[in-house]
Give the backbone structure.
Amino acid sequence: MLRAHLRRENLCSWEGIASNILANRLKMLTEQGYLTREQDPTDRRQTIYTLTEQGESLKKLVAVVARWGEKHFPNTTRDPAEVIRRKGKGA
């Protein structure tokens, strides 16, 4: 969640998270003040999530944790296409 604006369908497909779990997590992050939620003005069926100031303050921490994960779990990837390929193989 390092981009300023997130669209739910993009995050769901990239992460491979079940939609109900993603919805619960986004709701919790919104209720806790880390995200704002609004309908996309160009497509009312879509939702845009934006980091609040409180959410922005976590960017450095998330980046540190991501770098730690890359160091200690070198066989993981940040390439969404690779994540999807692995999931399809049952990995």
Remarks:
- The CA atoms of residues 32 and 54 lie 9 Å apart.
- DSSP finds five helices and three strands in the chain.
- The helical segments are 8-15, 19-31, 53-56, 59-72, 80-88.
- The chain has one domain: 5-88.
